[in-house]
């Protein structure tokens, strides 16, 4: 994936996250947390239910984290693209001297 593609992906993911996904993740994670607390209080012996709810909550959090990672990669890709443009603008002699 090129730096420009990484930047575009980050911008797209940031927009989707802020506009649609973050509120959805908030609702889903709150529901799982509420249900987990409810089952833990009323059925502490229902280990399978507790495990399933905890796993569902963990998966939701991991998916959100992966999207946030794509968003965070945007600034890194912008710096890399700027560096690449800078190197490309150098003369071949200058690149040779710098070992690029």
Describe the structure.
Helices cover 90% and strands 0% of the residues. With 100 residues, the chain is mainly alpha-helical. The protein has one domain (3-98).
Give the low-confidence spans.
none
Could you say which structural class the secondary elements and strand pairing correspond to? mainly alpha
Cα-atom radius of gyration:
22 Å
Would you tell me the overall average pLDDT? 85
State the separation between the terminal residues, measured CA to CA. 21 Å
Number of domains: 1
Helices, by number, come to: 3
Write the H/E string, N to C: HHH
**Strand content of the residues, in percent?**
under 5%
Oligomer: single chain
Tell me the helix content: over 70%
Estimate the global geometry from the Cα principal axes.
elongated
Number of strands: 0
Instruction: Characterize the largest beta sheet: strand count, sense, and whether it forms a barrel.
Output: none
Key traits:
100 residues, mainly alpha, 3 helices, 90% helix, elongated
List the helices and strands and how they pair.
Layout: H1 3-42, H2 47-89, H3 92-98
Helix pairs in contact: 1-2
Condensed summary:
The protein is mainly α. The chain is 90% helix and 0% strand. The two termini are 21 Å apart.
């Amino acid at each position: 994936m090129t730096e420009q593609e990484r930047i575009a992906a980050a911008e797209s993911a940031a927009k989707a996250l802020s506009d649609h996904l973050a509120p959805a993740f908030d609702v889903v994670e709150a529901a799982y947390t509420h249900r987990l607390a409810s089952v833990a209080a009323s059925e502490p012996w229902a280990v399978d239910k507790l495990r399933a709810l905890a796993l569902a909550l963990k998966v939701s959090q991991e998916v959100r984290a992966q999207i946030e990672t794509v968003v965070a990669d945007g600034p890194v890709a912008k710096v890399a693209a700027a560096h690449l443009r800078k190197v490309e603008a150098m003369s071949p002699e200058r690149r040779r001297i710098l070992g690029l």
